[in-house]
Write a structure and sequence with these properties.
By secondary structure, the protein is α/β, with parallel strands linked by helices. It has 13 helices and 9 strands. It comes from Pseudooceanicola nanhaiensis.
């Protein structure tokens, strides 16, 4: 007998619908069969593939690097948003929206080559620990979502990450953590520049934000980099609403999945009234749009992989 492809998924939630959808679209004898090149699945990252509390893990990296640089240049913390990030005041950090965080990203993410930045990210991930769980951040990926991505790949899907996080940040660990190569990561981007001096030719990261891959930006990013409308989309917040809407409104068999963070005991519980990762419109509209809402506390027997 074949092993269970989704061992961490309880029978109470979207498990049956997921298995049915995957079976239908991958069966050449079924009316809903979708050819392999069109069998594309997209996943948000923060809050969908790994945790996002007390804030996005990329911002925790930015905080650590900001504090390092502020030790050499204390004037950096004269800016209110910079100071809030340095102190871990995430409500204050988000008071000016994403635009207010551009300065933080500029300080921590630019002025170096892409290779040097990604090496630094990997080094940080290897040593940093979550302030509440004590886990490495890459140990806080969701075991059931790893199972789901494996199921999709086994069924001939091409799996992509479509994230509001920085594309170079996520590409630094996506292959090792999720089995997703860097060319299949769509994310927010800053300006970059090709330089031949000093040293060998390299791509350098420059200050600023060029493209925000969140909200309505996600369908744009999908079109720019994937070039096809996926047939499966998973997210966890209203920042993913446009992506799920775009994917599931197209003709043919489609699947939309929302991760609802309801498990305060094993992970975190939140939805509407939070500064980041809020899920309100998605909860209201999910039934009418035919999206499955996953209740983390009810529908998963495990959250993170065993260490």
């Amino acid at each position: 007998m074949a092993s269970d492809p989704l061992p961490s998924w309880q029978e109470t939630g979207p498990r049956a619908a997921l298995l049915d959808f995957v079976a239908r679209v991958s069966d050449p004898d079924h009316a809903d069969f979708v050819p392999a090149p069109e069998r594309i699945a997209v996943f948000d990252n923060d809050g969908t593939l790994w945790s996002e509390r007390p804030t996005y893990f990329q911002l925790l990296y930015a905080r650590d690097r900001l504090n390092q640089k502020a030790g050499e240049d204390p004037a950096l913390l004269e800016n209110e948003v910079m100071r809030a990030v340095a102190e871990g005041d995430w409500d204050g950090a988000f008071s000016g929206g994403y635009e207010g965080l551009i300065g933080v990203v500029t300080v921590s993410h630019s002025g170096m080559t892409v290779e040097d930045f990604q090496t630094d990210v990997r080094d940080w991930l290897a040593g940093a620990r979550h302030p509440e769980t004590g886990r490495r951040y890459t140990d806080m990926v969701f075991a059931p979502m790893l199972e789901l991505m494996a199921l999709l790949r086994d069924a001939g899907f091409t799996v992509w990450i479509v994230t509001g996080g920085g594309v170079h940040f996520v590409r630094a660990f996506a292959a090792e953590t999720y089995g997703i190569p860097p060319e299949r990561v769509v994310g927010s981007t800053g300006p970059i520049e090709y330089r031949t001096e000093p040293g060998p030719p390299r791509i350098f990261k420059l200050p600023g934000l060029e493209f925000m891959d969140d909200g309505p930006g996600k369908p744009v990013g999908i079109d720019r980099q994937i070039g096809r409308v996926p047939i499966f989309a998973a997210g966890n917040s209203d920042g993913d609403y446009a992506m799920l809407e775009y994917v599931t409104s197209a003709p043919g068999p489609r699947f939309g999945l929302l991760v609802h963070h309801t498990d305060a005991e094993r992970e975190f519980a939140y939805d509407r009234d939070v500064a980041l990762g809020a899920l309100e419109r998605g909860l209201i509209d999910a039934e009418g749009r035919g999206w499955c809402v996953l209740d983390m506390a009810r529908d998963w027997s495990a959250v993170w992989p065993e260490r």
